[in-house]
Fold each of these.
Amino acid sequence: MSHKVLHICLSSGWGGLEMYPSRIIPELARQGWQAHGLALAGSRVAESFREAGVEPLTLASKGRALLAVGRVLAYLRAHEVEVIHCHKSSDLRLGALLATLRPSLRLFFTDHMGVTRPKKDPYHRWAYGKVARLFSISEATRQRNLAAFPLPAERIRRLYLGIDPAPYAPCLDDEARAALRRELGVPEGAVAIGLPGRLTPGKGQEVWIEALARLAAMNPDLAWHGVLIGGLTVGEGSDEAHVAALRRRIDELGLASRIAFTGFRRDLPRLFEALDIVCVPSRNEAFGLTVIEAMAAGKTVIGSDSGAIPELLDAETGRLAAPEDAAAWAAALAELAGDDDLRQRLGQAARHRVERDFTLAAHAASLVEEYENLQGAEGA
């Protein structure tokens, strides 16, 4: 049985979906599987494959992918690859065609985004009919997938994402942590309240800013500092018009001296060490990778009570607030900002939850089990 898989991600963007294949490749290798990659030439995805130690097969454009089917089939034969795994619904056209032309291939698909409309027309029945297993990254998305996709329930499986908790474990000494807080503009003794993620509509930065304004009015003597972590340009994955609107609103509320923009940072695990509270006010997260990253860092997290985030957080590990309710966010911030012991207890419980339920090793083990079981079923 071949223990080789081709991950297909023909995207020119860069977000959690695009990062997934390169994140999983080293763990797959540790569990005995050799990964291959198919990406667009010159894309950040192709670069990430190389950074993970895999030289990808590349295509000039997504629009010409179907014309390259012969080349891809030849690559699969030459490398004895029997498993293909797609990560964008648009890539299923190629994946399903490959599985049609070579029926021994096993096709997997991960729905990273959460489907928003039914996909039961003839094309989707054909394409998804070639999928051996569809992975939903949360129970919230699985329920939508069951209703939207033309697949029997037993072929749709919830498979939570995972991370390696080790890089998120605190490692800065007091002096280094204090220096990092100063770099972020956090005054000594202030509660650092962070919001990491792409600065785009839907991620909840607006309600967070309004909540901080309410917090300032409710608790005028409380020292706090807001930290917005994320790229500021299109090239860094953000919406520049949205960034400009956020800056205007911060100025209107008189909070310019109390909220800092960090820009794109590669040191998120260390930035978590500089924060006291992490906020994830996204309106409809399909999973919430940032939530479990902050939890792994032992941080107290406030998340939206919508999408998949309530599957990750509960009253023992953090707090939830309605994504459009600035007053609820302000109340949660006030509770946590004023209680160091509570933040510590919640943070410790959150880290234990990640170690128990959301590790990359456990995720990859489940993935490998699916790859191997379905290969075995095909060969039986």
Amino acid sequence: MILKLMIGIMCVGLFSIAQAESFLITDASQIYDVRIDVACEEDKCGGEAKIVLYQKGKTKVFQQFASEDLNFYLPEDRQPTLGETPMYGDQSGLMFGDFNFDGTEDIAIRSGNNGPYNGPSYEVYVYHKNRNKFVFSQELSDLTYENLGMFQVDPKRQRIITFSKGGCCYHAKREYAVLPQKGLVLVSESIEDAMRGDDQVAIIQRDLIRGRWKETVKLYPLKDIYPDN
């Protein structure tokens, strides 16, 4: 459930007007309600924003965050959607999930479009049980600045999955494990490389098995993989 309150008007430039709005979101998390204070102009919200968490059923602030550029679009009903990660598309301004597989909800907050190809970037905070608060994770945040938007999470295999590309013809999918005392460890790479210059596409698979990398490379005619080129 989302409740929206108009909390003011802020002029931007000579002709455009951004409205300072407050969204109360009650269905994005199983544990927390969220209030987002941000300026919106037409169907786009962005710039400096405040994100406030409340434990469900309570009015006392649990924790507060700030974003320099929350940056998200509003659908036709002007209610922000949270938790969406369409590939290469517009992603949500805020996401909850267990990003380090410790059984507790973590939070990712949009920090503008600072990823490759001006893609979404996020500041990721993981819940620290002993401190009873969310703490910033540099390595998880870095994944969003270095790859195509917010990473995906496979809870069954306990893997974090990222996607990257170089131009039209180089794509990489990487999987990370989260290991105690070590943090993120790259354990798998799947690469499609059509930039070899020999009319072939290399499909490369690398896997970390018992501490050693195993690699397989298969070559395919370029026209079979990219028939329209």
Amino acid sequence: MSEVEPGVEPRTEAGDVLTEVIMRTFRLYGGFLEAAEVMTKPVGLTAAWWQVLGAVLRQPLPVSGIAREMSLTRQSVQRIADLLVAKGLAEYLPNPAHKRAKLLRPTTSGYTAVSRLARAQHAFTNRISSHVDLADLRTTLTVMDRLVEALDAEDL
């Protein structure tokens, strides 16, 4: 039996597997980000702009809400939101729940830019998903949702 250093958590098989999941997630994020940059360039967006616009397609949100939803810093979302507004792709609206925290929503131009991405996005996701069984993709999504819930419950 190996000894564990005092104050150091012992390794577990589940912990080791999760570490590998995290490492693969970093790799996937990098690849998906690279693909997003390629897809967004022809429509005049960046991956970051698409991410922020995507967060408010269904309903306007304050910058802090977008940051929480996307696990980004409020400051980085604020910078991107201000750029989107300056480019005419989004607009700020009054927030009835909070005077100072305005809501962000896409303009018609913002919705149009995101919808122009649809063909490239669907072509990309169809190509990549063709290498993985649909049931496995559904399981992956379920597990990711459970990991997000577990992470959200952590007091970091």
Amino acid sequence: MARPELVPLDRTEVKPRAISPRLRTQLVYFMSAHGEPGVPPLGENEYWFAAVEVEKWLDEGVFYLVSPLDTANMTEVEITEEQESLLGWLNAEKIQHVRLDE
């Protein structure tokens, strides 16, 4: 089975980045929702990571999750080394739009 990789669509000169299957399931924690201001139309298996949010997560070292059991409250979650590496790559390469190839 091939390892999933993120292919930059807005910076085609940047080499794709392989990610673990585990990190693949965590992309939804960091992606911008379809229809949010500034998010272009996305194709199948495409993700948008807003640069300002990526910088914020790197600076703070945490992100917030809403519990499906308690939508009124958010839980602060420390980013892992693997997540930090991905966010650092997005930030350093100025990438926001990627396609997931599996």
